[in-house]
Every structure is written in structure tokens, then in C-alpha cells.
Input
Amino acid sequence: MFIKEYLSDIFNATKSLFTGMKRTGYYFVHPKEIITEQYPDNRDTLKMAERFRGEVIMPHDENNEHACTGCTACELACPNATIKIITKFELTPEGKKKKALDTFVYHLELCTMCGLCVEACPTGAIQMGQNFEHSVFDRSMLTKKLNNPGSKIREGVE
Amino acid sequence: MAVDIVLSKRQTPDSKPQTLMFSLQGITNWIQNWLTANLPATWVVIVESLIVILLAIGLFAVLGLMLVWMERKVAAHMQIRLGPNRVGPMGLFQTSADTLKLILKEGLTPDGADKFLFNLAPFVVMIVGMLLLAPIAFANGFQIWDINIGVLYISAVSSLSVIGILMAGWASNNKYSLLGAMRSGAQIVSYELSAGLSILCIVVLSGSLQITDIINAQQNGWWILKGHIPVIIAFVIFIIAATAETNRAPFDLAEAESELTAGFHTEYSGMKFALFFLAEYINIFIVCAIGATIFLGGWMPLHIGGWQGFNHIMDYIPSSVWFFGKTLFLIFLIMWFRWTFPRLRVDQLLNLEWKYLLPISLFNLLLVTLIAILGWHF
Output
């Protein structure tokens, strides 16, 4: 029936409009829902999202040891050549030669924070950090060395 | 034509708020008496007109600044943001700073534009807003011109604003401007019908076109409370049509940012743009003031027939507070629409008017007439 369809159209339209207005009205009367961070003012209490990707970092434990084997999976995964792994050969106690990380070069100025390197890493040696205040006066300061000086690979990581 | 023509007319016997509270009528009476005692009659009219001009311009400036601030705050809170909060307390001076910036900017006129029409258009839009201010009663006895065809005057003059918009769109020599202006024309011409028909419902009920008569008819309750469901339907239709007539989202096809950059005011900058921007908010205020006057009783406090004590308490709230409260409530409602609903397409827009709003309001007018004839309203 035409009239029935016409009236149910009007009813459903009104109902859906009210649903929308209820949602925005709820937000209007609940200022606690506001998600704006007033950044420079609340720098000390800034709450970052857990999945925020600010830069690539390599965590070191208290013995200055990291988990990077120098396998270059991250370097291969990187779409714009942000990472350059320089390896060296170390002698194991058994007298064998073994490939190890010498320098993890990270070009922050080239990085798009896609996180593919973190996904590619087989040992979980690198992560995405939360720091986003990267501005410096000299471009060369954006090229970083991620492994600490004198650090070595953690025991048992292959 | 000045403020005081209304005075000492139409004081219904049981309206005694004047003695109870601060009243603007006292001030206008005093000015009128002082002027007539000290000046010849012609000069009285001239001085009073000057006062009215000053008040109107002052009201426009304050309204423009306040409503833009209010819109930005309402929008922010509905979108879980904070809104302006840096310039002054709660960002109150943000709009003043913006206005200062616009005054300092160059008002560019494009090379291919029709210079005369291009520069005239913003003023046409503003003047229509100013003309509409005339019959609005801001408080008890505080009205510029209590014309006896007030409602007809309002619906006639409000349709003139489309001329300013078409003028701006045509003179800009820009395809986006022209498209926006044409859309605006189609829209305003369409929605004026249902707006007029819903106003007509109240005219039928109160039996007069005069604003003062319509307000006095709501002495024992506002029409929206007295008139049963048909008046509520008329009110809803009026609000929808008012939103469309002021070119605001969800009916902002005339300036649809995502499609036409800024529609009819794409080429305007500086103060000429500011005039269009101001006119939008002035129009919202006026349309809401008319809605508040016709459906919600204007300055009339909330009276319920027979409840003497309650009515007496309500009279203690000044009539100007009632008027501006109701108007601001309607403005908030229209802002709520804007920040909730997505924009309609042109065909949807015209469907809504010609297939839904117009038949419903015609049928509704019939119902209201029946109610008025049989005296079913309270």
C-alpha cells in the first residue's frame, strides 16, 4: 500500500534522525568524553595511545644487551631504505666465526613509521617508540645509531 | 515607526508584569516622554529612528560575535573537541579577533566580476536581515514596528534574501558561485511554501497577522502546548523549513564546501565575506525569533490557563529573558541539526519538500482549521 509505505518512510526517517541527535546530544552534555589533548600545556601528563608509532627504538636490558642478530630482515622489509645494518664477525668461545651486529643505522628523516621492520624482526629486537618530539636544528642529527656503544647480543638469542 | 508606537496599546487586563519586574517598556516610555517634551514632533521621530538604528546595529554586532562563538563551542562539544579556548576566558574573544583580522584584510574584487552587483550583494543580504528585525517583539512593549500584517511582512521580506545570494553568485563570474546561487534559489523558493503554511496554522488559530495579537493570544499557554499535535507538526515543519531557508546544514547545498568550495561567496574576501557570514547568523537569529514568537509565545512567560499562582511566579522573570531564552533554545536546536546530520543531495532536498513537507503541511493546515473552527484548542 502506498500510504502505508509513505507513513512508515516518515516514521523510520524520523527515528534514525533522532538516533543521531541522541548521540551528539549525549556528547554535548558529557564533557568528560572530550578526547582533545592540550599538548604543550599537559606535556608532563600526556597520555599517548598504546599503538602510537613515533620512531624505531631498540630496547637494551640492564646488562647493555639487545636482541638483534644482524639478520637484516628489517633492512629488507623497509620500503624506503631507512635502516642500514652493518655487521661484523665475532669469535664464539668454541673458536667459530659468527655474524653479529656492528651498527644499526636508522634514518629518522626517511622513516614513514609504517612499522614493517618491527613486524619483520624475528627476535623482537626493535619496537616503535612513543617519542614524537623529533625536531632538531641539523639534519644529520636525524641519522641515529640504535645500538648502544659496547652493547652485545643477549645470550640465547639466535 | 519608532520603538514607542506600540506603547499604551493592547495591554490586556490581566497582564500586570510591568509593575513586578524590570521592564524595557519603562525606559522606552521615559525616552518618548522626554523627547516629546523637549523637541518638535519631526525631530522626535528622527531621534527615535537614530536610536533604533544604533540599537539594531549594536544588536547585529553582538549577535554576530556571540552566535559564531556559540556555534563553534556547540560544534566542538558535539564532536568531542574543546573548541576555541585560547583568546579570553573560554575563547570568548576569539570571534572579536577574527573580525579584526577580516577588517584588516583586502576585499578583493575579481577581474571578470560584475563590479557593481558584486559589491552590492553583501549589503542586500544584510539589509534584508535588518528589515526583518522590524516586527519582532523583543520584550513586552519593546518592538520597532507593530505592523498589522506582521507575519505577511516577515514571509514576504525573508524571500528577498535569495536575490542577494543570486546576485553574489551571478556577479562573481565563477561556476561554483553560480551553481551555489542556483541551488540556493531552488531551495529557498521550495521551502518558503511549507514555512508559510506552518506559520499560517498559527495565524488561523490566533486570527490575526499582527505579532502583538499572536503573542497576546498565548496569554493562557503557548500555541505549541495549546494546539495539540497539529501545531507540533507545524512547529517541526517550520524548524525544518527555517533551517533550509537559512542555508544551513543539512541543507547547506548553496555553499557545500566539499562540492563547491564555498558556493555563492567563493570569491568574497575580507569584510564583504564577513557581511555574508554575519548575515547567515543574523538570519538564523531572526528565523528562530519568529519561530519562538509564533509557536512558543515570544516574550510571554510560561502561563498555564487557570494556575494563577504559577503564572504569577513566572511573571517575575523579565519578558526579555523569556524571549531570548526561547530564541537561543531554537538556535541551539538548529546548531544541533547542523552538527548531526549529513548534507542532502539536490534531488533528496526537493523530494523532501515537494513529496513530504508540502503535502503534510497542507493536510495539517486543514486539521488546524478544523480545530480552530470547532474550538478544540485550549
Summary: The CA atoms of residues 278 and 319 of chain B lie 26 Å apart. The first strand of chain B starts at residue 137 and ends at 139.
